[in-house]
Structure formats: structure tokens, C-alpha cells
């Protein structure tokens, strides 16, 4: 029994020493990126304070950021990732939002809600995707609120809220119909088609009457083809009328 206990103790000491060595190698700028990355992966699952502190420091390195972020998440290092949300580096903030969301903890929803209003689109979009990843109606108030701000993150939030079937997103979608962003207007029309009703038909018919395609040139959509907002409106009208017809049939 004494020998068994001694063996476990020695194994623990070796493990601690190995972890200390891995931390030192990961943070050493004298080693190659591959060597430092290997050391980072060796520390996966290590929840010790030195390892967690080293991972937070490693977030500043592009070569180590993804590994260190995942290690922090798997170690449950909420405070370190929370502090990373306020980092001056956009990529660090974006990663922090993604990893915090992957924890799926309800108490982190307000943090992600706040991150969705980050001035940089990458951070905001990561926060929205993180909220959507919960796949739970508890995030709906946040998604609806974010959708109201517009921009890329707002459009993404509108889509995710609609996928969860929340009718509260309809007023927001209707607001997008008057915006300058063609892609956002098409998505909003699609949301209205899936969830709207008879009151939406006059506006949709007005849009459907305009058959000319709307170009996205100059709005950051690259070489995507022109979008026919009129066709999108016609599709939405068909869906709404199909639902109305079905409801009337069920009433008899």
C-alpha cells in the first residue's frame, strides 16, 4: 500500500513538472510556432492557475490563440475569457465571444448580448452566432434587441430569431423593409413571408410590383448577382396566402 501511494505521489509531481515545462515552452519566443503550439495542446484539460494564466497571455499570439481559447473554455476559465472581451485586439474579443458562447451557460447570455454591440463587425457577429448556438428561447430577447440595431450583426440576429419562431421579430423585420441594405431587405421579406399575416400583404404587393433587380454593387457583397426584391416579395405573398387558405379550410 505504501508503495502504491508513493507511486501516485511521484506521478503527480511529474505531471506538475511536465505542466510547468509545457507552460514555459508555450510562452518561449525562442521556439518555433509549431513547438509552442504543441506545448499548448499538451496543456489541454489542465485547470491549474499557472496554466490558465498562461493561456490568457497566449491569446495575444495569433499562432496560439485558437488553442489557448479552447483550453480556457475547457478549463471553465470564465473570468479570463470575460476579460478577453475587453481586449484591445479585435481577434481576441471575437474569439472570447465564440468560446464563451460554446460554454452554453445561461448566466453568460448578458455578456454575449453586450458583445453583440461591439463596434467591430467580427466581434458582434461572433457574439450573435454564440447566442444562436444556445438553440434555446432564453436568448430570444437578446436576439430581438440586437436585430433592432441593424448592420450585419442585426441582420444575423433577425435570421436566428426567426428560426426560433419568435413573432416578436416581425416588427423589426418590417423596419428593415425601408432600409438601404438590399440583402437585409430580402431577408426581412423572407421572415415576413414565414411569420407575417394579412396586414403585410399590401406592402408586399407594392414591392412585388417592382420587377427590376436591385444591384448590390458597392455594398460589400463582392460579386454576388443582383437580387430581385420583387421576386422575394412574391414568394412571401404566396406563403402568407397559403397559410391563410389552410387556416380557412381548417375552420370549416
Mind explaining what this structure looks like?
It is built from 14 helices and no strands. The protein has 252 residues and is mainly α. The protein has a domain at 177-252. The chain is elongated, with a radius of gyration of 25 Å. The chain starts with a helix and ends with a helix. The relative contact order is 0.06.
Instruction: Please tell me what the overall shape is.
Output: elongated
Task: Report the strand count.
Answer: 0
Mean pLDDT: 87
Helix content: 55-70%
Parts with pLDDT < 50 across at least 5 consecutive residues: 1-14, 216-225
Oligomer designation:
single chain
Note the main sheet. Answer: none
Give the SSE string.
HHHHHHHHHHHHHH
- Beta-strand percentage range: under 5%
H/I helix tally: 14
CA-CA gap between termini = 81 Å
Estimated structural class: mainly alpha
Radius of gyration: 25 Å
Give the key terms.
252 residues; mainly alpha; disordered N terminus
Write the layout of secondary structure elements.
Elements: H1 2-27, H2 33-42, H3 49-58, H4 65-74, H5 78-84, H6 90-102, H7 109-115, H8 121-132, H9 140-147, H10 151-163, H11 170-176, H12 182-195, H13 201-208, H14 229-251
Helix pairs in contact: 1-2, 1-3, 3-4, 4-6, 5-6, 6-7, 6-8, 7-8, 8-10, 9-10, 10-12, 11-12, 12-14, 13-14
Amino acid at each position: 500500500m505504501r508503495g502504491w501511494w508513493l507511486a501516485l505521489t511521484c506521478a503527480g509531481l511529474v505531471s506538475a513538472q511536465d505542466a510547468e515545462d509545457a507552460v514555459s515552452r508555450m510562452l518561449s519566443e525562442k521556439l518555433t510556432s509549431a513547438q509552442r503550439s504543441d506545448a499548448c495542446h499538451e496543456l489541454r484539460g489542465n485547470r491549474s492557475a499557472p496554466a490558465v494564466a498562461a493561456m490568457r497571455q497566449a491569446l495575444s499570439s495569433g499562432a496560439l490563440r485558437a488553442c489557448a481559447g479552447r483550453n480556457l473554455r475547457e478549463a471553465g476559465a470564465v473570468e479570463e475569457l470575460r476579460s478577453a472581451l475587453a481586449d484591445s485586439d479585435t481577434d481576441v474579443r471575437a474569439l472570447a465571444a465564440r468560446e464563451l458562447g460554446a460554454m452554453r451557460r445561461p448566466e453568460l447570455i448578458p455578456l454575449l448580448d453586450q458583445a453583440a454591440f461591439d463596434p467591430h463587425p467580427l466581434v458582434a457577429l461572433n457574439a450573435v452566432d454564440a447566442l444562436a448556438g444556445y438553440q434555446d428561447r432564453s436568448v430570444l430577447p437578446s436576439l430581438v434587441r440586437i436585430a433592432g440595431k441593424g448592420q450585419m450583426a442585426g441582420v444575423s440576429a433577425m435570421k436566428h430569431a426567426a428560426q426560433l419562431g419568435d413573432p416578436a421579430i416581425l416588427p423589426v423585420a418590417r423596419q428593415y423593409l425601408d432600409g438601404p441594405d438590399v440583402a437585409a431587405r430580402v431577408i426581412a421579406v423572407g421572415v415576413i413571408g414565414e411569420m407575417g399575416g394579412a396586414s403585410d400583404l399590401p406592402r408586399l404587393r407594392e414591392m412585388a410590383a417592382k420587377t427590376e433587380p436591385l444591384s448590390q454593387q458597392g455594398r460589400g457583397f463582392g460579386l454576388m448577382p443582383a437580387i430581385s426584391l420583387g421576386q422575394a416579395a412574391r414568394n412571401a405573398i404566396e406563403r402568407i396566402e397559403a397559410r391563410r387558405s389552410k387556416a380557412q379550410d381548417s375552420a370549416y
